Amino acid sequence: MTYPTNWNLARYFYSGLDDAKLASDIAQILPRTIAFAEKYEKTFASFIDSEQILEFYTDYTTLSHEMATPSYYLFYRSSLDTQDLDVTKKMGEVDYIHTEASNRLLFVAQGWKFIGYDRIMTRANDPKLAKYKNDLISTANSIKYILSEREEYVLNMKSRPLGLANSLHDEITGSYEFMMNIDGEEKKLTEEEVRSYRQHTDRSIRMESYKSLRRVYNSKQNQITLGNIYASIVKDWTSEIRMRGYNNNVIAQRNISEEMDDEVVNLLLSEIQKAYPIYARFLKAKAKMLTLESDFAVFDTSAPLGKSDKDFTFEETYALHLSVMQDFDTDFYEYSKRMIEEERIDVFPRAGKRGGAFASYRKGEESFVLLNFTGKLRDVSTISHELGHAIHGHLSQVQEAPVYDSPLSMAETASIFSEMLLGEKVKSIVSTEEYKDYLNERLGDIFATIFRQVQYVVFEKQVHEAIHAGQELSYKDLNKLWRAEQDKLYGGVVQYDVPAEDESGWSMIPHIFHTPFYCYAYAFGNILTFALYNQVKS
Ligand SMILES: [Zn+2]
Questions:
Q1: How many angstroms does the Cα of residue 64 sit away from the middle of ligand 1?
Q2: Higher pLDDT, 259 or 397
Q3: Neighbours of 2 (CB within 10 A)
Q4: pLDDT digits over 162-195, tens only?
């Protein structure tokens, strides 16, 4: 069985950047927004009738959906080629129109603010608005942080250059070239390819892979750029914390968007930090199995255990995923099959393609998955993970748009659940040696998605708090803070190959640039999913 392995965006969106439909969809954004604003801006604040609110929701949802379609297309295009300047330019143009449009929609937040907490909560409990209940509750909870219309307008205009800082991290790291010595030959590789060598059985190759990444990220020039991008993002975030009155709690804004209580998040962070020694124990055991007890290095932390370095073809990997889904649930199976057959999975790494893997979905549209498949056992888990997201997006279609997206803390539930389903199947199809490897990887992943993510957030919190308190942090300060937190996590088991000052690991984590404090959602999602999986089992 051979599958199509590229996205067919023309099938779902536009034939290309020069498609007249794309131009007209973009051109329609502002006029449609203005028509919507004219219909509601004078009256919305006086709406107390459920019928009126229902009609408003319907119109608003339609408008938001139409407005977003060109952006989705351009985002997918830029994910396939982050270096495509025509796409980047078009994104900038659409972004400008969106800023203009959202300025026209500022009256909505002001209207909710005027309607007030009590009256919104009354509507939230009205059966006629049951489909929107959760959106009404979160609106009620968030209105106290909304500033005046004029202030919101200024912030909105100021947010454009910040968007640039966000994409600058992607663009600039996407343009990096990595040289790596493999079998005596200097090869030019993508970041994704270099990263995959960190899991190589040959220690010297793992070391080379680390060195290759570091040569690029640790260069003074890149550190200055990435350090400044990061500091400007943090400064913007912390200014907003002050302006909107989040009580000096730098993580509050994320907790509200996540619908998480501060206490729950604090508990999550502190409990995992207390559990760090478990990770150190795992690394110690691993060092022993690899007979590297005396000099277990940072480039050994992701080492495989087995002697086999089995490569999987995409076809066999996908077949495995399908068989796991088939055993679990018909919907899961059918949708996984459709995802690949209907050309919505982009499989292989290419120069310029965005790194990592993701799934993207929204109300009224099919899910899309991007992979960078390199044929390792790890990639097998990634497929199950991302397809779990895709299925989540598919099954959520019964929800209305304003409540379609789950908060990030719940968004990892289906993905991790799928990975856990895969785990049992793997045992039955691989040799003992391979299974040992797999378990090592699974544990490594669990530590990475619970412990390491918490370590990221603890680092972020320190940086945000320092900057919020008026400190200036250079990239060297960031490096030292990073090393200190990493050290706590490793518990003295790991030896470093670079001094703390050159420890640029933070600069390789897109999430802390894009979505501050996102990473705790992984830890939360994992723990939640373990509990859920145990319930399914019993
Ligand atoms: Zn995920």
A1: 25
A2: 397
A3: 7
A4: 777 778 888 899 889 999 988 888 999 989 889 9
In which element (H, E) is residue 345 found? strand 345-346
In sequence order, the 6+-apart residues with CB closer than 8 A to the CB of 467 are 231, 234, 235, 238, 473
If residue 156 lies in a helix (H) or strand (E), which one and from where to where? helix 149-174
CA of 390 to the centre of ligand 1 (A): 10
Calculate how far, in angstroms, residue 497's C-alpha sits from the geometric centre of ligand 1: 30
Distance 145 CA to ligand 1 centre (A): 29
Query: What is the overall mean pLDDT for the chain?
Result: 92
| Token reading at 35 | 């028509």
- Rounded distance from Cα 38 to ligand 1 centre (Å): 40
pTM: 0.78
Digit-coded pLDDT (tens) for 30-42: 999 999 999 999 9
Rounded to whole angstroms, the Cα distance separating 146 from 113 reads 8
User: Residue 412 Cα, ligand 1 centroid: separation in angstroms?
Assistant: 5
Q: In this structure, how many other beta carbons lie within 10 angstroms of the beta carbon of residue 301?
A: 22
Q: How far is the CA of 410 from the centre of ligand 1 (A)?
A: 10
